[in-house]
Amino acid sequence: MRPLPIPPAMTADTPLALLMARIVDGDAAAFTRLAQVLQAPGLRLADRTLNDRAGAEDVVQVALTRLWTMAARYDPARGSVEGWFRRIVVNLCLDRRRSLKLVSPLSEADHVASSDPDPFEQAAANDRRARLDAAMATLAPRQRAALAMFHGDGCSMAEIADALETTPKAVEGLLGRARMELRKLIEMEPQT
Amino acid sequence: MTRDRALEIIAAHGGDAARWPATEAAALLALAESDTVVAAALADAGQLDAMLGEWARDVAPATIDLAAITRLPVAAPALRPARRWLAGGLVAAAMAAGIAFMAPVTSDSTMIKTVSPPNAVQLATADGDAFGSDADVFATVFTPTVDEDALI
Predict the structure, then answer these.
(1) Among A71, A82, A128, B89, which is least packed by CB within 10 angstroms?
(2) Which residues of A fall within a CB distance of 8 Å from B61?
(3) Which range (B19-33, B51-65, B70-84) has the least confidence?
(4) Ranges under pLDDT 50 in chain A
(5) Per-residue pLDDT, B150
(6) pLDDT in the model for residue A192
(7) What is residue A16's predicted lDDT score, i.e. its pLDDT?
(8) What whole-number distance in Å separates Cα of residue A70 and Cα of residue B64?
(9) How many CB atoms are located within 10 Å of the residue B131 CB?
């Protein structure tokens, strides 16, 4: 592990790895700054992976707690702070997978009505979204995590592979199967 | 670029060429111009991309209690691997020394005395004084307890 130099002053542009060096010394302001950067993407990833809002908030709270209490374990030579935090979030989510429940079965999505009094197109979009949410509930947490990282955060295959502790090629297969299953589940009509 | 590989890339990465593997993007785009199956897959992928992008980003923010976290103590830096081995070695050496001191020693305190449990051979060669005949020795050593007898 290479020791990080301690920056003389902290600004909004302070690199996250340098904030980590300050956190190791118990700098609460550096932690708050870092948490502000990581909190939203961490919550998105946890929420989409778990399909459970309350569980996602718990996961982010625990992940940020680990970031604070285990900051000394972060090794900048092994990757970015964001990647390290993503791996913590994903691992916490996957550890909770046994307690996951389907949000709503697909059959229920057939009866989801749009509450928006907009034209037909808006109702159709709402219906597609309801079907997508229901279809997502049937995917494996790892598939949802990969989709959330790829489409939500714009992560590369290598970054997703790092978070899921697998290979980029395996991630490509994971995403391909997930998208194929989703297409079937939501019965998306091909564009003409 | 084969059709199968093109469809594989589109299936996993979607319809945005910017998200495709850099080394294969140009070949895939060229193939899509001449292959109607690939072109159709490309057009379909865009619709799912849009839905997934909205799905992945549309998450309401949460309020995490950061102050509660910073009230917790920060862990000490982890030992480097070499230091971990050194620390482990020291612990092992200390345990070995402790065991050596606690073991029975000979009268001159220089050698550890080996204590062997009594066994049937030693008992049988003890002139029969302690346990009588060989049959008594056998009975003493091999007679089952009440529990063992019940199992038998």
Answers:
(1) B89
(2) 39-40, 43
(3) B70-84
(4) 6, 102-105, 108, 192
(5) 66
(6) 45
(7) 86
(8) 18
(9) 16
A106 to each of A3, A123, A134, A139, A141, how far by Cα in Å?
52, 18, 5, 12, 17
Q: A 30-89 residues with CB below 8 A of B?
A: 31-32, 35, 39-40, 43-44, 47-48, 56-57, 60-61, 64-65, 68-73
CA A185 to chain centroid:
22
Return the biggest CA–CA distance within chain B.
Answer: 105
Is residue B13 within 8 A of residue A155, CB to CB? The reply is no
Split at pLDDT 50, 70, 90, the class of B136 is low
Kindly report the CA angle at B138 between B134 and B143, in degrees rounded to 5?
A: 150
What residue has token string 């494996």?
Answer: A140
Only one residue has tokens 């102050």, namely: B67
Would an 8 Å CB–CB cutoff place B14 in contact with chain A?
yes
Across-strand partners of B112? B105
Would you call B11 exposed, middle or buried from its count of C-beta atoms within 10 A (0-12, 13-18, 19+)?
buried
Distance, CA of B88 to CA of B82 (rounded, Å): 10
- Residue B127 CA to residue B134 CA, distance in Å, equals 10
B15 Cβ neighbours under 8 A, 6+ residues apart: B42, B43, B44, B45, B46, B49
Using a cut of 0.90, tell me whether the model's pTM lies above it: no
Q: Which of A1, A152, A188 sits opposite B48 (nearest CB)?
A: A188
B149 touches chain A (CB under 8 A): no
Residue B105 bridge partners (DSSP): B112
Quote the tokens at residue B122. Answer: 């030693």
Six token digits for residue A91: 């691992």
Q: What is the pLDDT of residues A3-14, one digit of tens each?
A: 555 455 555 556
Q: Please say whether the beta carbons of B40 and B74 come within 8 A.
A: no
> What is the ipTM score, two decimals?
0.75
- SS3 label, residue B112: strand
